[in-house]
Amino acid sequence: MDGLLTIAYVFPICAALPLGVLVIYFFSKRQLPVQRNRMFTAAVMLSCADVIFEFFSAVVVNNSEGVPQILGTLVLVMFYLLRLTFPVLMSFYAVSITKELKPKNFRSLAAIASPAVIVGVIILFTPLTNLFFYYADGRYFRGRCFFLLSAVTAVSAVFTAVYALLKKPCFQGHSFPIVLSFSFLGLASVFVDVVRPDRNVSSVAISSAMLIACLSLTKPESMIDHLTGLLNLDAMMTYTDELISREARYYVIVMKVENIRRINSIFGYTVGSLTLSNIADFLSTFSPDLSERSRLRKNIRLYEGTSASSAESAEKAVGDARRLERTLPSAWAFRLMSNQFAIVSTDEETHEKILRCLHERFEDPWHVRGLEINLMLTVAEMPETGSFASGSDLYKVVELVLPTVPKGDTVTVRERELGKIERLILMESSLEKALAEEKLDVRFQPVFNTATGRFDKVEALARFEHEEWGDVPPAEFIPIAEKRGLVTQIDEFVLRRTCELLKNAEDLNIEFASVNISVTEMASAAFPKRACAILDEYGIPYRKIVFEITETALMTSIVLMLENLTALAAMGFGFCVDNMGLATGDIGRLAVLPLSLVKMDKRVLEEVQTSPKARIIFENTIDVLKKMEIRSVVVGAETSSQAEWILETSPDSIQGFYYARPMDEKGCLSFIRKNNAQTPKKPGRDNFIVVTE
Q1: Whole-prediction pTM
Q2: Which single residue of 19, 126, 553, 670 has CA 20 to 30 Å from 164?
Q3: pLDDT, tens digit, for every residue of 232-287?
Q4: In terms of DSSP bridges, do strands 512-516 and 455-466 run parallel, antiparallel, or are they unpaired?
Q5: Which residues sit opposite 459 in a β-bridge?
Q6: d(Cα 428, Cα 286) in Å, to the nearest integer?
Q7: DSSP H/E element including 343
Q8: Residue 407 CB: number of other CB atoms within 10 A?
């Protein structure tokens, strides 16, 4: 009787209760079609089947004399096959969390499943089933190889635990301890099966493992846009990450509804929100999700709106909804932000059909609360997405591409354009890395004083050197930094390096160093306090720093910056308008600002050399600035003829390659010391000393 097969009713019943709650919760939420969710879905279905067959197996074993042997054996075979499959599936689930469940890893995955497959084939297809369990004298008994069933579970559990330990950095959040937990449950159930064969606790272990594994899933609520009910930006990046990890081909349509802000301002935010909801209802027709498609059937306002009071119009709306449900292909729709949406599909024909449907729908008006509203749609489609490394890269491309599409147009973004954008994305990550490792470079360009013939000012210039592209001009990387919120770090880095230079130049009587500052920094309420703290840290007087702001930024954001400009000027900081031109310079507005310096843009020299009238304006501008007690700097002197001509107009200072190029701190200080130590005969290359860095 030691080999008697016993299965109790109590354990599958206890396991069924929490498992039923989990099934109801999981399937009531919209889940993304990512590997982790698919594997979890399969595990849930398998665990339910396991519990059900365990209950029927208990019926068979405990009533073996009244159950036909063929039926009883079939039920037990199915039960033990499910018991073999579940731990293997949970191993695959652990692998899917690390995004390594790929076709190229087929051999490794097959090796994981091979023990269960071999034992399963023996049980199901050969007479050797009797080695695991057999029927005799009206009862079921354990066979000589019954222990292999537990051994397969133990092997899968050990593999899962070892894999988790080796791949620990790849697990996010609480996934790592969760994977170890259900591995431990598998080993614990094996131990109980060996010590107490009459206690079939495996179903309870499976149910507990599923409850624990559920904690590793992303909460569906965090993936939903609450206004429209569509999946949100995080969901899109998660889904595309999944497609990229599987090396699957996919197609993206991103769109912007141009009229929403105007609708909000004219009709109010309620109408604007309802309009977005109607657009979302239309986009949800592309989704394979059953709950999404049911929204379409219920929402007859998709075409007719609440004004569709007649039976005929209501019938037409329902008919349109049903027609779309039958004919539209499957894809996934997302709301990215505000008036931006995206549709991701995995089939080229589907992609093209969706494009046609979008254009056809937006050619017709939308009816919202009795209003007939025409909407303009701007679309960027991406049929070539193989170069993206992650879903976040895709969204960065969306951010860069969509604003460049003319309103109401549809643009196809090909691999060629994506290559240019890829450079910007790579530059962004490289810039972040350079800031984190403090590898950003700062160069200092001495400024020539026309009155004394000495170099008594410097300008600090941020420089970014990429290992592949070499020196990247500020005009290229600063806009990226501003867009990504990195400009604050850059400004602080440059200011600190400038303070270090001034501290090491106490013997040179440098009047001040100018530092370019972004609009976002100058408009920040925290900037004055932060700037003062940095200078106090290095013991630098405030008058030694002049902040440079471009003329365009100053004129467009003067209201935002005026408070900080006034406060910092009162402390002693100086301010300079950079890149001031002849045509755009507004001398009248400059008069009311606390400015100490104006830099004439280098393009001014080109205008002046070709236009006598421009020269008159230039000379008068220099004269007016002197009368306003605002010093002037002419930028861009690169030849001796330019230098001589500029000197005739008597600006306060000249900055350009003819006098000095940007150089590192050591080179700059050495250059100024050697040049200022000489008695200059005339400005220019007669006094230019090349200092190697």
Answers
A1: 0.56
A2: 19
A3: 888 888 888 878 877 778 889 999 998 888 888 888 888 888 899 888 888 887 77
A4: parallel
A5: 445, 514
A6: 34
A7: strand 340-345
A8: 10
